[in-house]
Structures are given as C-alpha cells and as structure tokens.
Amino acid sequence: MGTSFWAMSASLPDLETFRSEARKWLEANGEPLPTVTATVSEEDSDIEWGVGSDNVAVFHNRTEEQEAAMLAQAQAWQRKKFDAGYGMLSWSEDVGGRGLPMTYVRAWNAEESRYVIPDAGELPPTSMGLIAPTVAAYGTPEQKARWIKPIMRQDEYGCQLFSEPSAGSDLASVTTKAVRDGDEWILNGQKVWTSGARFAQWGLAITRSDFDVPKHKGLTAFMVPLDAPGVEIRPIRQMSGGACFNEVFLTDVRLSDAEYRLGGVGDGWRVALTCLGFERDHSGGGGSSMGGGLKRVMATARHFGLTDDPVIRQMLADLVIHQKVSQYTNRRAAASLKAGQTPGPEGSLSKLMWTANMKRVSDAMGRILGARLIADTGEWGTFAWTEQVLGAPGYRIAGGSDEIQRNIIGERVLQLPAEPRIDKDVSFSEAQRLARKS
Ligand SMILES: Cc1cc2nc3c(=O)[nH]c(=O)nc-3n(C[C@H](O)[C@H](O)[C@H](O)COP(=O)(O)OP(=O)(O)OC[C@H]3O[C@@H](n4cnc5c(N)ncnc54)[C@H](O)[C@@H]3O)c2cc1C
User: Topology of domain 159-274, per CATH?
Assistant: First the structure.
C-alpha cells in the first residue's frame, strides 16, 4: 500500500488540490490516449476513418489466453491506481476507502478518461461494482476484510451465481439447495448464464435453504470459492462468437457457515435485491456507447456518402433524438440521487432507453452497411458491426428484461394493478405443486 494513500485519507483534501495531484500522478503513471489529427469531420473529432480498432462488439469474442491477457492488463492498471490511493475513493474508511464525496470520484474519472484504461469486459465491473458493495452491505467485519480490498484491487474477481435454468426473471424461484450440516452447508444445484465465471475466484450464490416458507423467505446467500471441490464450470458459446457465459454446477459443495454465508439465514432475497440494485445503476447509467455509439454511426454514414439518403437521415435523426432523451433521463435520475432521494423507476426507464437505442444503432447500421454487414471483405469499420448487431439483444435480457422493466414502470409509474401472484403466501414447495398443476 503506497504511503500517499494513508496520508491523504486523514482529512478531506481541497478538490482542486486533489485534481492537480491526480493529474500529476496520471501524467507519471498513465498512458495518454492518442491525439487524433486528421478527422472525418469536426463533430466526429475522435474518429479517424480506418485508424485504430474498429471493434464494436457488445460481448467480446476472445480465446481464453486473450481474455487472461486482457484481465492481466486491467489488473496491472487497477493495482497501480489502488496502491496510489485512487482505487476506493468514495468507499468508507472502515473498509479501506478514502470516504471522499462523489465530486472527487467524478473529478478523478474526468482526469483518468484522458488515459488508456484497459478494458477487460464484464468481470472487473461486476466484481467491483456489484459483488464488493454487496459484501460491504452484508458481510461480517471478517468477510469485509477478506473480500473488499482484494476485489477492489482486482487481485480476485467475483461473479453472480443467480440465474438457473428455471429461475431468471423470477429469481426468487431458485432451487439450488443449501442444507445445513453442523458448522457447514452443502450446496447442490445448477446456475446458468454466469458471466466471467471461468476467471473468477468467487461466486455470490443465491440458494434455497428452506422449501417450507414462501419463496422470498427461504433463500440464503453464500460466497462460493469457485475452486472448491464439487464446482464445475462449463462455457456457453454465444451467437456473436465468444463464450462470456457459463453454466456452473454445484455438487455437494461444502462451505463453512461462518466464512462463506453472506447475510442471515433466510436473508438471501435482500442480498439479491441489493446486488441487483447495484446492477441496475450500473447498466442504466453507463455504457451508452457500448458496441459503438452515435459518432461511429455518423462517421460510417458519411464515409459511404449516405447522409443525403432521406431514409438514413430519418434514422439518424431518430437516433440523435432518442439518445438526447436518454441522456436527460439519466441526468434527472442522477440529480434526484444527488438530492438524497432513493433510486426510483428512472432506473427502469434508463435501462429500457439504453437497450432500445442499441437496437436503433443496429438497425441504422444494417441500413447503412447493407451486404457489408454480413460479408467479411476485410474492410475496416464494416463487418465488425455484426458483433454489435448480434450482441445488442443480450442486454435486453440481462439485468432485468425489457418486459420486467415495463412491469416496473406499469406498476410504479402508471399505478397499474400488480401482476397476480399465486405463490405469495404459500410455501415454496406448495407453490411448485400449484405451478405443476396449472
Ligand atoms: C448478457 C447477459 C449476462 C448475464 N449475466 C448473468 C450473470 O452473470 N449471472 C446470472 O446469474 N445471470 C446472468 N444472466 C441471466 C439473466 O439474469 C437472465 O437471463 C434474466 O434474468 C432472464 O431470465 P431467463 O433467461 O430465465 O428468462 P425468463 O425469465 O424465462 O424470461 C423469458 C421471457 O419471458 C419474459 N417474462 C418473464 N417473466 C415475465 C413477466 N412477469 N411479465 C412479462 N414478461 C415476462 C421475459 O421478459 C423474457 O422475454 C445474464 C444474461 C445476459 C443476457
């Protein structure tokens, strides 16, 4: 741990001093982003046609070795940052953070954005943005000390063992069984769609510890060491090419109660909701340009001389309008959070708009590129878009599907009647029996 970390955490630094120290540190340690000279146009000032990567994949398509190498780069940067005191700016001091307000985080992000930040896909943000804060919310002091700093320094990664073949949108229906055996628990079941599991050391699992109470009440969460005997991880190949997801089989996996249970027995639903809350903030707010944003679409339309085509102009205008509306909604949500209000259905609105805009990008690029989208001619900035088009639908499912977001908006914004729930007040085993009968 660098000495500057502790020296700076003693009191709140002046924001401008903080910013200039961050700038100096970045100058000494970071790799500045390349400055582009010849550009496609002034509005697309950071896209030089044919130069640099044309990767617009939503999900990466890499070999295991490439993925490991990318993670190693992300780790190296994060460790440097962490050791200099920039890894846990807003985290509270009792778990190793600096307890700084969000204005400092924003100042750091703005400075850091001028430098190369190695991108290694979903696992680092899932670990640091979802798993670590959930451990902070529910962990014992020993568990917080065990996991938070190693995850925030990217020494270790954590993934979400939530979904199962018969429990996705209705997550409270998980059937992975956790049975108490003295000071230990024995886990049996199957998880699916686990992003990043092959490279993670830990999986936050939601399991069923009691079948005789209503479904939300019989769940318990565990941090599962993924190298434990009985854990088997199998990759799933996706249509865009890569294998970001996995099936995770748990067979007689023995876990110490004191070490690995996260939250109380029967508290698993609260743990899951907390983690999903972080996921919703994470998916709705950021990533607007994931898989290639507006600038790339415009640059491509210009490159192929299509900005005079009335149908394409209409599509581009539609895209600009919807992206602006989405930005304003995100800003409104951020402003209400800043004003101390609890996150509301804006998260659902933001997520819906974000995924709808990714689809608009796909549709516009289909029209702009035509056959170039499906025939790989080796031409820069063309066939690469297949990975955007085939990957974008995934985010209409991840983190709460479109239909689930619409249900939330229907109930919480439009005050429509809630969906009928036959399983609310009956035990989970009785609910399963009723479901089989219906
Ligand atoms: C990119 C990506 C990453 C993921 N990463 C992870 C991960 O790391 N860990 C993990 O545990 N899971 C992960 N998942 C799984 C994800 O959480 C589930 O796919 C999601 O919750 C939907 O569940 P399901 O696939 O079982 O579909 P289902 O829940 O079976 O839904 C099928 C269809 O029915 C609709 N539907 C379901 N219920 C309702 C309802 N009440 N009203 C109206 N329509 C409804 C859905 O919208 C959907 O169209 C990931 C998925 C994706 C796509």
Answer: Butyryl-CoA Dehydrogenase, subunit A; domain 2 (2.40.110)
Residues above pLDDT 70, as percent of the chain: 91
CATH 1.10.540 fits 3-121+140-156, yes or no: yes
Q: Which amino acid is at 410?
A: G
Q: How far from chain centre, in Å, is Cα 93?
A: 25
State the span(s) of the chain assigned CATH 1.10.540: 3-121+140-156
pLDDT attached to residue 240:
82
Protein residue with least CA distance to atom 40, ligand 1: 404
Name the residue among 431, 407, 405 with its Cα closest to residue 418.
407
Q: How far is CA 334 from CA 337, 346, 411, in A?
A: 5, 9, 22
Task: Specify the long-range contacts of residues 300-303, CB closer than 8 Å, at least 24 apart.
Answer: 300/365, 300/368, 300/369, 300/381, 300/382, 301/364, 301/368, 302/40, 302/41, 302/44, 303/40, 303/49, 303/381
As annotated, the residues of the chain forming the CATH 1.20.140.10 domain(s) are 290-412
Q: What are phi and psi of 348, to 5 degrees?
A: -70, -40
Query: Does ligand 1 lie within 6 Å of residue 276's CB atom?
Result: no
Check residue 52 and report its DSSP letter. Answer: S
Instruction: Give the integer Cα–Cα distance in Å for 277 and 351.
Output: 12
Which of 60, 169, 192 most suits a substitution to test ligand 1, by most atoms within 8 Å of the C-beta?
169
Catalytic residues: 279
What is the CA(284)–ligand 1 centre distance, in A?
Answer: 16
173 Cβ closer than 6 Å to some ligand 1 atom:
no
Protein fold of 290-412: Butyryl-CoA Dehydrogenase, subunit A; domain 3 (1.20.140)
> pTM, whole model, 2 decimals?
0.89
Q: What is the pLDDT of residue 37?
A: 40
pLDDT digits (tens, 9 = 90+) for 278-330: 876 655 444 445 778 888 999 999 999 999 999 999 999 999 999 999 988 88
Which residue positions in the chain have pLDDT lower than 50? 1-9, 36-44, 284-288
Token duo for residue 257: 């109660």
Mind listing the pLDDT tens digit for each residue in 195-204?
999 999 999 9
